[in-house]
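Posting for a labmate who doesn't have an account.
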Amino acid sequence: MNAMAPTRPTELRQRRVRLATGPAAAAEARGQVRAAICAWDIPVDPDVAVLLVSELVTNAVRHEVSRTVMLAINCSRDQLRIEVHDTSCFMPVLVDSPADAETGRGLMLVATLSAEWGFYRTPAGKAVYFTLALQPARAQAGSRAARSSRRNGAQG
């Protein structure tokens, strides 16, 4: 048997999407991230990626003073990086919220589940980002499942 190892992205892939602030912004961001992960065959846990982008977009929409937020999705050789740009000049603060608090734990989730997170000033305001390391084992499992489904589909 001559099995080929799945290839990891060698080039930078990028997608930028302008999101209208409002109730649908987080759902749109989740859909965009899931679509990029699928289209680019990125070996990360899509559920973690969409949870974290939802947190960042929700924070941006809650504190946004303009009508748009920019979502940037980048995949390089070893990581998926997602940024949420807004026009607020207030930098995020990681707080230690009590367990019974109804809000305030979103950035703690981002800090816990991402490989890295942070923020920086931009000419228009700020960007908050997180990265997820690529997981080769996830890519191999996905490739095996795709081959199996193609074989099963060809037989049926």
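Reply:
Got it, the structure tokens are right above this. The longest helix spans residues 136-155.
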